[in-house]
Amino acid sequence: MGGLGKTTLARVVYDLISHEFDGSSFLADVREKCDKEGSVISLQKQLLSDLLKLADNNIRNVYDGINMLRVRLRRKKVLVVIDDAAHPDHLRRLVGEPDWFGPGSRIIITTRNEHLLKLHPVKKVYKLEALTYDEAFRLLCLKAFDTHKPLEEYVELAESVV
């Protein structure tokens, strides 16, 4: 389900631990970007640029990108976030197999498609649960009004938003 906070949670974890790795990359909106022609290549280029600081990485096609990622990152301890993956090809072409990366590497995948994680060698799955109405109301009030409950004139609006 969308709107649960998967991307926000992944971003917080990324920001907290990225300094512990040789390189890190946050690939946002992968589903949306992969729907466009040639975008997997641009994501592969972003990965190499972020992880190895390679500005000109000469990837001509998806398979060049796969080979370059696999060969050049094999000994690097990296953190990669694949945000909003929707298809097995997204994972195969961007993070492939665990042996693409050095020991201690972590790949975080956010997706709406739990089945996708069963098709890829994923070690641990954390499933977010939707907030209850009361939890959602409290969260909205804290974020929108900086208090646990809104002023009387905003109660109806807050309830309709939740």
From TrEMBL:
The protein, known as: NB-ARC domain-containing protein
All copies of domain NB-ARC, residue ranges: 1-147
Molecular function GO terms recorded: ADP binding
Transmembrane segments: none
GO biological process, one term: defense response
Gene3D superfamilies per record: P-loop containing nucleotide triphosphate hydrolases (3.40.50.300)
